[in-house]
Amino acid sequence: MSSSAPTRPAAALRNSPRQVAMASLIGTAIEFYDYYIYATAAVLVFNSQFFPKADPSAALLLSLSTMALAFVARPVGSALFGHFGDKIGRKRTLVASLLTMGLSTVAIGLLPSYDSIGLWAPILLCVFRIGQGIGLGGEWGGAALVATENAPAGKRGLFGSFPQLGAPIGLFAANGVFFLVSHFLGAEAMVAWGWRIPFLLSIVLVGVGLYVRLTLHESQVFREAEKAGKKLNAPVTAVLRKHGLQVLQGTLIMTTTYVLFYLMTAFVQIYSKSPVGTSPAGHATGLGIPANTFTGILLIGAIVFGVCTSIGGVLADRIGRRSWLMGVTLAIMAFGLVMPGFLGGATAGTVLLFIIVGLGLMGFTFGPMAALLPELFPTEVRYSGASLAYNFGAIVGASVPTLVAVSLNQTYGLWGVGLYLVANGAMTLAALALTRETRGIDLTMVQSA
């Protein structure tokens, strides 16, 4: 009896696979929902709500530019929450990141318009957008670690795909809510006040997420590192000093994933919904597809994205992270080369096919990331290292691709946009070629250099 007694407390503190799946998935789904409703509103609504209406084109560019603020803020969230996640644990840090994101989103839903408070409207919008970025910057790393540090042997890729499923679920939910609001209230009411409904609904989702996460136990991997005295006073400094190469590799590995996603969900949305016309250089600038038609297309794409995310995680367990991701990256580069053929003079049907293929490839590359990035770092700096790599990738690959793609399309046409994706794919391919295979490593045995 004396030999069995010490094992009981540890066993009682272990999370079941169901707990791990739910806690890692539901939080990221809520956070990505918050993030995507902002992106949708920035394209459809914010230009008229929070900026002067004298120049519609300038207002749209300003509205899209606010999206970039969150990407700049995300590494700040990575450093802040990564510091506490590596010092006090994953669970409490995840609760704090969820609250930061959720409260910022609700605040945007309550924000008065430019007509009501003038310049304060865009200023406060920027402040709350930064809050969203800080929250998501801390969210992903913690959710990825909850999944991978609690995963059964040989299934880190599969379990790592659970937090990644938050992205397609959040994308589907965000576009679904906007679709319903527009359908039942009409376009005018949606622009005037209906857009606030998706933002205010976030408070309900945050409550559900908090309940699920507060029932979670700290991971055994972290508790063992804590017991062994491996916790550091300044984990962010340590990861940049000792593991800077791994942070750079992780950043470049994530870059193409982000570029592809924002081309699919933002650039193609603008291109599809814009009236048929040409730029001064003679290139097509729009397809004139109705807004709700494209939203329906994106909902179908989100389902494909989710299915392929799970498949990507499973195949990365079987084939290996490095080999699988190198193959998918080559396929993404080929996809960039055929972009003009897909979208040049496209109909709603060909846009749907384009979105299905693009978001399918996105899922294949996105699924394994929550396993690969944490595997690059030892336990005592894993939260900080994985979060920084993921969110630096967001700055390089997601903060400006929509603006860059719009500009490239006006000057060079869709060939310019496709080659932009190819160039980013080449960087990712080089980073993967220089990265070791991590599928078989033991997370408890990864040591600092």
UniProtKB/TrEMBL annotation:
Transmembrane segments: 20-38, 58-81, 93-111, 117-137, 158-181, 193-214, 251-271, 291-316, 323-343, 349-373, 385-406, 412-435
PROSITE patterns associated with the record: MFS (PS50850), SUGAR_TRANSPORT_1 (PS00216)
Compartment list: Cell inner membrane
Keyword entries, A-Z: Cell inner membrane, Cell membrane, Membrane, Transmembrane, Transmembrane helix, Transport
Domain (Major facilitator superfamily (MFS) profile) ranges: 20-439
Organism domain of life: Bacteria
InterPro entries in UniProt: MFS_dom, MFS_sugar_transport-like, MFS_trans_sf, MHS_symport, Sugar_transporter_CS
Its membrane topology: Multi-pass membrane protein
Primary localization: membrane
Cited Gene3D superfamilies: MFS general substrate transporter like domains
PANTHER family: INNER MEMBRANE METABOLITE TRANSPORT PROTEIN YHJE, SHIKIMATE TRANSPORTER
NCBIfam families: 2A0106
Protein name: MFS transporter
